[in-house]
Amino acid sequence: MTPREIIKKVRQIEIRTRHLVNDVFAGEYHSVFKGRGMEFQEVREYEPGDDIRAIDWNVTARMGHPFIKKFSEERELTVMLLVDISGSNQFGSGTQLKQDLAAELAAVLAFAAIRNNDRVGLVLFSDEVEHYLPPKKGSSHVLRVVRDVLGFKAKRQGTALAPALDFLNHTTTRKTVTFLISDFITGEDLKAALRVSAARHDLVAVVTADPRERVWPAAGLVEWRDPETGAGQVCDTSDPRVREALTQHFDRQRTGLKQRLARTGLDVVEVWAGQPYDRELVRFFKARERRLRT
Amino acid sequence: MTFCYPWLLLVALLIPAVLWLRYARRRPPLNFSDGARLALLPRTWAVRLQPALPALFALGLLCLAVALARPQKGLEESRVRTEAVDIVLLVDVSPSMSIPDFSTPLRTLNRLDAAKTVLEKFIASRAHDRLGMIGFSAFPYTLCPLTLDHGWLLDRMRNMRPGMLGDATGIGDAMASAVNRLRESKAKSKVVVLLTDGQNNCGLMQPDIAAQAAKALGIKIYTVGASSRTARGVGDDAVDEAALKRIASTTGAAYFRAANLDRMQDVYEQIDKLERTEIQIDHFTRFRELAGPWLLAALLLLALEQALALTRLGRQP
Q1: Which chain A residue has its CA at the smallest distance from B46's CA?
Q2: Of A190, A264, A275, B48, whose CB neighbour count within 10 A is largest?
Q3: CB-based burial of residue B126 (10 Å sphere; 0-12 exposed, 13-18 middle, 19+ buried)?
Q4: Which among A210, A219, A221 has CB closest to B313?
Q5: Residue B197: phi, psi to the nearest 5?
């Protein structure tokens, strides 16, 4: 994509997601991640210019001159977006590649975070960390995030989540809300890396998939290539047994993945390329809110 | 099976290139995110049959290359160019030819029958030359003009009877007639074989003059005297050896004396050999073209490949 195309796409996504961010789940986002309100930090001496409403009268009375309460903005949290840009995301049956879906989701989440004055950071990874944007505030920064997630070209094809999670653990000092946007097509054992990250951060797995990864139409012989390994394979989609096997295999794998993610304490959002994801996000936020309340 | 243009078989060397163009240089395969999942899918017969397509295609092209090289089969009967030698057989049918002095102890055989026996073999041995036959006594009669249809010639010869053309011997006229028959001939070698048992005693043309005419036209006249009796001094019946020798030498041929059947046989065999050595024979074989079945096979194979590639074995993208 040329820079011009990328900017155009950023605008498109901004416009498309504005409604989503401002109206549909603005409140959800707020309540899910900001439920704890202001946090008391310290009491210090009043200085001219301070809001007099912040004066702590009890302390003032005890000490004889004015003191104010200082609160830290607990709301000011950090949202990290870990986006998988490995070869397997270069797949899409409709108008949208999985990569595009991931980018759009990242954009939506980034806009939502910025609207709530959160800091947004970005990690793009394949089988290594390819690109890192440190968390920052501001609408120009969020546009940068969106631009990078749309336009970055992966140097490597493979998929490995563990290096990205390790990188996250090493670079962040505070607790973050981290969205791990990936198709989770990887042979590695994620348990250890996920457990460490989930303990430190509020980790949400966004699992992307394409409908054609699960169900094939009968379209004769199709030659496929795995973009990560380069291995070719001819499959007979006209044979019902083949299609059946594909669906079964996908469902089995998906069930297993969800179980594993849930066991490590992650929230899971499933999104499909070419299909609306807003409802899925809202449902996720609602469910999370419900869980936090109880 | 031979090839008319064997070097065109080299076209077959291009087949790998064509295969590459058709199969290797196709659009790149579609990406599928999870190759491990694909490997688990069952392999159906259509997938297993995939290598058959290039094989069919290559085979079709091979057949096409073979057809292009024009395979052909030479027919068993090869033909000699008919213009090689033209031979007119001059046969004396005067009544004296019925004298049975070619008899063996076992059977009686008159001169003409002996001549027929020998001529049959001669004709059989000259299967590729145009032969004609002129019978003569008082006047010449063309039994058969120059022809390759030797069956008909033999038929005509068998119908010859002594005395069928009067009671005299017009050798000069007969020679003139034979020379006339050969005048238009374009053969490399023009030959008359004159068989007689008498001497010229009638007719307008003197044998020597006819011989001169033959010489002028490049016609050789072999002369055969057919009589078991010694020639000289037996009157009308005797062979005029001197005249026959003269004729032969004038035209650059030879005179032979055939006193009995074996001798006559020898004489004609000799003539046969003499003429054969001088003739340059142009062989040309008639071929049966065999490209058709190859072409058909090629078309069928290529059509089959195309049909399969467009239907069940067709591959996306």
Answers
A1: A236
A2: A190
A3: buried
A4: A221
A5: -125, 10
Q: Give the pLDDT band of residue A54 (cuts 50, 70, 90).
A: confident
**Chain B interface residues (partner A, CB cutoff 8 A):** 28-44, 46-47, 50, 312-317
Question: How far apart are the CA of B21 and the nearest CA of chain A, in angstroms?
Answer: 18
| pLDDT, tens digit (0-9, with 9 covering 90-100), for B115-168 | 898 899 889 888 778 899 999 988 899 999 988 888 899 999 988 888 888 888
Pairs of CB atoms within 8 A across A/B: 98
Q: Give me the residue from A88, A236, A246 closest to B33, CB to CB.
A: A88
Contacts for B122 with CB less than 8 Å, ≥ 6 apart: B89, B268, B269, B271, B272
Q: In terms of domains, do B11 and B160 share one?
A: no
Interface residues from chain A to B (CB-CB < 8 Å)? 87-91, 98, 183, 185, 187, 210, 213, 219-229, 231-236, 238-239, 241-242, 245-246, 249-250, 253
| Sequence-ordered list of residues with C-beta below 8 angstroms from that of B182, at least 6 positions apart, any chain | B86, B88, B146, B190, B192, B217, B219
Of the candidates B29, B31, B40, the beta carbon closest to that of A249 is on B40
Residue B231 has pLDDT above 60, yes or no: no
d(CA A285, CA A29): 7
- C-alpha–C-alpha distance, residues B317 and B30, integer Å: 7
Provide φ and ψ at B169, rounded to 5°: -135, 105
The answer to whether residue B316 is domain-embedded is: no
Q: Which of A232, A239, A246 sits opposite B37 (nearest CB)?
A: A246
Kindly determine whether residue B37 and residue A238, on different chains, have CB atoms separated by under 8 Å.
no
Residue with tokens 């009638």: B202
Enumerate the residues of chain A whose CB falls inside 8 A of the CB of residue B44: 236, 239, 241-242
CB atoms B50 and A234 under 8 Å: yes
Shortest Cα–Cα distance, B2 to chain A (Å): 43
* C-beta atoms of B37 and A233 within 8 A: no
Amino acid at B191: V
When divided into structural domains, chain B yields a total of: 2
Alpha-carbon distance A119 to nearest alpha carbon in chain B (angstroms): 32
Q: Are residues B140 and B17 in the same domain?
A: no
Strand partners, B193: B89, B222
Alpha-carbon gap, residue B31 to A97, rounded angstroms: 11
B114, B224: one domain: yes
Find out whether B142 and B134 touch, Cβ atoms under 8 Å: yes
**Encoded tokens for A157:** 């094809």
Residue A84, pLDDT > 90, answer yes
Q: Where exactly are the structural domains of chain A?
A: 3-32+75-293, 39-72
Residue A237 has pLDDT above 60, yes or no: yes
pTM above 0.80, yes or no: no
CATH code for the domain defined by A3-32+75-293: 3.40.50.410
Place of tokens 């049918």: B93
Looking at beta carbons, which residues of chain B come within 8 Å of A89? 33
Q: Do B231 and B200 fall into the same domain?
A: yes
Q: pLDDT-derived band of residue B243, with 50, 70 and 90 as boundaries?
A: confident
Domain of B13, in residue numbers = 2-76+286-310
Structure tokens at B200: 């010229």
Closest CA to B59 of B279, B291, B300, B246: B300
